[in-house]
Amino acid sequence: MGFALLAFFQLAVGLYFLAKPAARRSVFDPAWVLGFIVACLLLTIASQRVFSPQYVVWLIPAATVLPVLREKIDWMAIALFSGIVVLTFIEFDYEYEGLLRFDPVSTVLLAARNTFVVLAAAMFAMRTFAFSKA
Q1: Is 49 helix (H, G, I), strand (E, B) or coil?
Q2: Prediction pTM value
C-alpha cells in the first residue's frame, strides 16, 4: 500500500505541473523541494505496517530546516514534528512493554503519535499543491 500511495502522489504532482505551466517555477524553490521530499517520506511512513524509530531519524534533517525556509516560521510543522519525535521516544524507551501488554496508556500514546504522522503527511501533501499558487 505504501508504494502505491507514494507512486500515486508523485504522479499527481507530475500531472499537476504538466497541467499548470505557471506552477513549474515553484520546483526551483528549496522550500518546495524539501516539502515534497518530507511529504513523500511521511506518506511512506504513514502507510507502512511497521513504524521503526529510525523513520523519525529520516525526518530530523528536514524537520530542522523546513520550518524556517519559508518567509514565516511554520509553527504547525514544528509542533507536529516535535510531537512525533517526543511520542516516539516515550513509546520505544518507556512504554514498549506496555504495548506488549495492551496497556491503555501505551495504546493512546501510540495512536497519538500515528495521528500526528498522518496529519503531518496530509499537511505536507496539500502544501505541495498549494505552495505553487503563492
Answers
A1: coil
A2: 0.76
